[in-house]
Amino acid sequence: MAYVHHSNEISTGAHEARVEDYLALLKPRVMSLVVFTALVGLLLAPGGINPFIGAVAILCIAIGAGGSGALNMWYDADIDAVMSRTANRPIPAGRMERDHALAFGLVLSVFSVALLGLATNWLAAGLLAFTIFFYAVIYTMWLKRSTPQNIVIGGAAGAFPPMVGWAAVTGTISIESVVLFLIIFLWTPPHFWALALYKQSDYGAAGIPMLPNVAGEKATKVQILVYSVLLVASTLVPSWIGFMSPIYTAAAVATGAGFLWFAWALFRTTETVAMKKAGRVLFTYSLSYLAVIFLALITDHVANMLGWL
Questions:
Q1: What is the pLDDT of residues 213-263, one digit of tens each?
Q2: Which of 33, 39, 102, 277 is deepest in the core (most CB within 10 A)?
Q3: Structure pTM?
Q4: Contact 268/221 with Cβ under 8 angstroms?
């Protein structure tokens, strides 16, 4: 397969960018998930943090996520232009110069890391810097275009925010924050591969070696099922290590059963239309699933603080 290579063709003739175009560079949907999981990590961390400092820490993580999103759009403008779901992004749509996106992303990234280090500690800042580097360089510039395991390895970038939030409070990395990382890390492959199953033509046109395009639909469905089992098992670890109580456990079991049901339904499909429909269903469910898991974590924590358990 001939993969699309990075080029500078998309930049000429761009109109002056609007405020909403710069906001789009931040990938606000992705940012919202990053902020939420980081906030959970910060709130679950022992010892507590000054509310103002905590707010600054979350703001820094949000800015860092936005900066890495801008760097991703800068580098991926060529392939964004040929994918239906990304063709209207500011650079491929001709509303912004590519170099402007690069400068914007770099400024936000450096600012967020420096401020987080000054406001909290340099372990948290270092983790944030590594997260930005991992997403912008390791995933975007290397893995995404070179291997069908791009999502598996690259998923680490989206899994670091709760560890950053935890480190901002404690200045440490603990087993609890690693478990939070693991849940998101194992959630990423079935989430994105479900999307890839019904967006194969987009990824094929862009030359991105997503698993369905390289290994085929059957192998992808097997991998989704395997990772789904590992994911649900990982969500039970907080209860197993005594980090969480029955409220969280009940939510993890109930929502995990739903995830496995949809993954199994996808695995059993044989007809293309049914497979794409099942893939869309699993992808949609996976979005709410992760949110519910992390909401259950914080709900359980609050219930314990109030003495309800």
A1: 888 999 999 999 999 999 999 999 999 999 999 999 999 999 999 999 999
A2: 39
A3: 0.91
A4: no
